[in-house]
Amino acid sequence: MTDPAIAPAAAASGAWPAPPARTPWLGLLAVLLGAFISTLTGRLSTFGLADIRGALHVGFDEGAWITTAQTVAQMLIAPAAVWMGRAFGPRRVLTVAACAFAATSTILPLSPNLPTFVTLQFCGGLASGCFVPLTLGFILMNVPQRVWAWGIAIYALNLELSLNISASLEGWYIDHLSWRCIFWQNVPLALGMAACLRFGVPPDPPNPYPPPRDRYGLITAGLGLSLIYAALDQGNRLDWLNSGLVWALLLPGAVLVAAFFVHEARTARPLLDFKVAFASPLPQLLLLIAFLRLTVTSTAFLIPQYLQAVRGFRALEVGQTLLWIAAPQLILCPLAALMLRRLDPRMVASVGFVLISLACLSVAHGLTPLWGSDQFLPSQLMQAAGQTLALSGIQFFAALHLRPQDGLTFGAMLQTARLMGGEAGQAFVVTLDRVRGQVASNLIGAHVQTGAVLVVQRLHDYAAATARVGDPGAGQARAAIVLGSIVRSQAATQGVIDTFVVVAGLTAVALMLVVANRRAPAGPASHLPLFARRGGPS
Fold first, then answer.
1. How distant, in Å, are the alpha carbons of 210, 218, 531 from that of 534?
2. pLDDT digits over 137-150, tens only?
3. What pLDDT does 462 receive?
4. How does 416-431 read in b/e, with b if 16+ C-beta sit within 10 Å?
């Protein structure tokens, strides 16, 4: 559907307008469903990784590449997805990708061995990797500008919802059905997405300005970013720069990305429009979007990590906690859209960052090894609301600086920021939590010395509490085990506290970056042909 304000401007410039959509909201549902599928599948694979490894009879190190294969493929295909969207139209590309993803998800759980499974995971990542880059581009190009706020708010809802319901779904699948449902659930979702595209979006019109056939740019950008992503994903397991494999991934990746930028700066028809990519304030906003993925990780990783390591919760019990964080998003989504339509998006994003910082500080201030799921709910509801408002505000603020035809370029940049920010954020949070936990363990352990009066008294009390009639010696052994468990719980708790404090401090810095931006323009700078490059055809 084309905004009535766009058609006269397009006609005046000699460009063809986009044909009206058959059912705009159905098409919007399709692309948002695709983004939901992409995020949910990655999270489900992570939560269910232990069960998947067990079914395939592989160890920890071999199984670590199961989730990496999918996300690396998503990064690899991102530049090509945008090129295909401009060359063949988003509707055609998304329909083919949805059908391919449904087919891959059907046969993936039937894999007889790990190589076959990883290969199919990679193929599924190539298909689902087309979803997110084309989502925002579709919103900007196919719905009226007055509806952008709703589309972007629903996109933010999709992120929070898919991240926080995944643990509950995975736990329910494992307890009541099978680990295979982690993948089979994608089949009806992907087919439903294809049906929405078929009946809700008109056929893509011919593109008067086809994109440049920049094969070198497609290869170097996709391959370079995917290599760097793989290094980040495996870095914590392989001890970062102490691993030759991490170096073997990072160095070629950095060289390929550098070669891509040099090539794009010198070629006559570059794949990446630098005028869009580096136009203020987009680089800064993309950095903020990447940072938001770090704050999401603090919820999605630290809370399950604490509940499982300290309290011994199972995946289903952790999922029930996160589910209560996801449910209020259904209310926050329309609230965020209304705020974006009536307030400066910088104010909406600022309110979001303030809520995130307060939520992190409240956890850091009150967390003890006695906390359960109920104690996390107030702070995490606050953080979930903050993440939705911050993401909606930043994306809408960025969209106001774009022309509709820049939507696909922004979609690729958003996918890169989303995946890289999420992976860098997870690597940072996981490493910081591990290191601070080790430091806390050393500091606490320094005060637990054999023969110390307080230690002897504590062991005596534990032995008395756990002693069995006729077996007093066993009580002493159990007392040592209990004391060691308490030290580990305290150290793990302190590691989580320190990480939340750091995230809160970084959020304050992000808030200052948002406030420092100038007010956004009222809307897109101009309404030119939807697939045109700046300056017209070459």
1. 13, 20, 10
2. 677 677 777 777 77
3. 67
4. bbbbbbbbbbbbbbbe
